[in-house]
Structure formats: C-alpha cells, structure tokens
Design brief:
GO cellular component, one term: cytoplasm
CATH architecture of the largest domain: 3-Layer(aba) Sandwich
Distance between the termini: 29 Å
Order of helices and strands: EHEHEEHEHEEHEHHHHHH
Enzyme class: oxidoreductase
CATH topology of the largest domain: Rossmann fold
Number of strands: 8
Number of helices: 11
Radius of gyration: 21 Å
Function: Catalyzes the reduction of 1-pyrroline-5-carboxylate (PCA) to L-proline.
Pathway: Amino-acid biosynthesis; L-proline biosynthesis; L-proline from L-glutamate 5-semialdehyde: step 1/1
Number of domains: 2
Largest sheet: 8 strands, mixed
GO biological process, one term: L-proline biosynthetic process
Bound molecules: NADPH dihydro-nicotinamide-adenine-dinucleotide phosphate, (2S)-3,4-dihydro-2H-pyrrole-2-carboxylic acid
Amino acid sequence: MNATPTLGRTAFIGGGNMASAVIGGLLRAGAPAEAFVVVEPWAEQAARLRQQFGLTVLDAAGPALSGADTVVWAVKPQLFTEAAAPCAPFIGSALQISVMAGIRSEAIARASGSAQVVRCMPNTPALIGQGMTGLHASAAVSAAQRQRAEALLAPTGRLLWVDAERDLDAVTALSGSGPAYFFYLIEAMVQAGTELGLSPAQARTLAEGTAAGAAALSAQSEDSPELLRQRVTSKGGTTHAAISTMEAAGMKATVVAAVHAAARRAAELGDEFGRA
Ligand SMILES: NC(=O)C1=CN([C@@H]2O[C@H](COP(=O)(O)OP(=O)(O)OC[C@H]3O[C@@H](n4cnc5c(N)ncnc54)[C@H](OP(=O)(O)O)[C@@H]3O)[C@@H](O)[C@H]2O)C=CC1
Ligand SMILES: O=C(O)[C@@H]1CCC=N1
C-alpha cells in the first residue's frame, strides 16, 4: 500500500457497491491503485475489483491492514461487528471513516480501537460523481482528518457536514435512501406513459429528462419548490388534475411518513447491530 499526499494509505473493509463507487471516483481523480487495499471475502466481487481497478484485495483481515492511515467501513450494518473483530488488531491508530447506515461513532470507536471516527452517508449517484453525502466528525477528529474525509468523498459529488450525529439518521432517510424514491416515481411515470400509448423507451426518456430538469430548476431557482410547482399548475388544467389526484390519495403525507420510517430504521440498525 503506497500513500497519496492527501489520503495516505487507505483500507476498505467491504468492497461492494458503495466502496466501488468511492474507489472508482478516487481512481478517476488520479489516485494510484497502490494507495488502496480492500478486504472482500466474496471471491467473485474480489476478482471484479482486481480486474476493474487493479486493486490489492484480501479475502480476510491481516497484517497488510496495519499500514493504513484511513480505514473505510463499507460492509452492511448487520455484518459490522463480525467484520470488525479480525480487523481490530491492525487498525487502532487509523482514522475510521464509515459509510454504514445507523452504526454510531461510539460503536465504531469501540470495535476499531480508534476514537477518530467520521461517519458519512453517501448515495448511489456517487457512481457517476453526482452523489450527495452527509458527514459527521466525532470530537477526536482533527481539522486535517476532516479534510482527508472530504478528499476521500469529493470525487463522488457534493458534501454536507452536520454537527449532531443524530442528524445522520435524517440524512440517511432523505439523501441516502432518497434516490430510490425518485426511481420509484420514474417507474410509476414510465408505467403511466406506456399505458397512455408511448413506447417504454419514449416514456423513460420523458420521465428522466423531466426529473433532471425539475431538480436543476429547483437547485438554480430562488423560489421554493412549492412556488415552482404552482407555476406549472394552470387553473383548471392538466397539472391540477394530477396533483388533486395525488393529494386525494394522501401522497405527500405518505412520502413524509416513508422518510420518517427510514430514519427510524437507521436508528434501529444502530441499536441492533452497533453493539460489541
Ligand atoms: N447502497 C446504497 O445506496 C448505500 C449504502 N450505504 C451503506 O454502505 C454499506 C455497504 O452497502 P453496499 O455497498 O450497498 O453493500 P454491498 O453488499 O454491495 O457491499 C458490502 C460488501 O461487504 C462484503 N463483506 C461481507 N462481510 C465482510 C467482512 N467480514 N469483511 C469484509 N467485507 C465483507 C460483502 O460481501 P458478501 O456479499 O459476500 O457478504 C459485500 O461485497 C452499508 O453499510 C450501507 O448501509 C450507504 C449509503 C447508500
Ligand atoms: O437501504 C439502506 O439501508 C442503505 C442505506 C441508505 C441507502 N441504502
């Protein structure tokens, strides 16, 4: 494992979707593959990481981890304590960066032996550099280590620090899971467009183009999403017919309840799987 000036030597515990998105971004930004080592027990995924990125991949924790300045936790929360036990002897002096939903800094510090913990919640648009990540640093993390966490995640898209760790459950519910909510809406719009006679490809192009345009207009506008929606909604027109149907079905209340359910689940994951 070589060091890069900003990141140092970085070990990933878990080499699945999220780890691949982060590593892919770093390599595209010019980091050398030699700066990374990945622990990934699934042989097929390990082979993919070696072939796609030219990485060193271990099938289990070992002394090769002891050179790491930064350890990135990217296993499922359910597997965290099982994955951490064999790593702990080698990683106690490193900065610990977690992308795991729910697992709290205190549990990561206890399992790793390092109180320097940055928790992050990325999302899958990270795969194309358009992710949105929330981050929280525990008290023992230095300004330089915060910058290291930012350097790790910057190639995946935009970053937002939160001061209170409990806010990460809200971040998880909003932006971590959030791409799925928009994909769900796109699915429904494609279904409707197809029922109305468009081809699936035409419906998909229209739904995706509209989602991208609406998000970009909202991001660039000083006006609230509510006002932007009202501007689309002509009196007695088509949008009014659609939004009235959504309101009658309680769609906004359902979305609000769904995001609350995701936040509750994030907290439960911490309670259930963050114990030693
Ligand atoms: N997917 C998403 O949208 C987001 C996910 N996250 C978080 O990222 C984390 C990873 O999720 P994701 O990448 O989707 O999951 P994946 O299942 O794709 O990746 C996890 C990887 O860890 C491997 N693994 C299992 N046990 C161990 C072990 N003991 N040591 C090392 N590696 C192990 C798994 O192998 P195997 O398959 O053999 O078990 C798997 O390849 C989760 O904690 C999740 O909460 C955060 C934000 C968004
Ligand atoms: O569904 C999950 O638990 C993970 C965390 C956020 C997105 N995917």
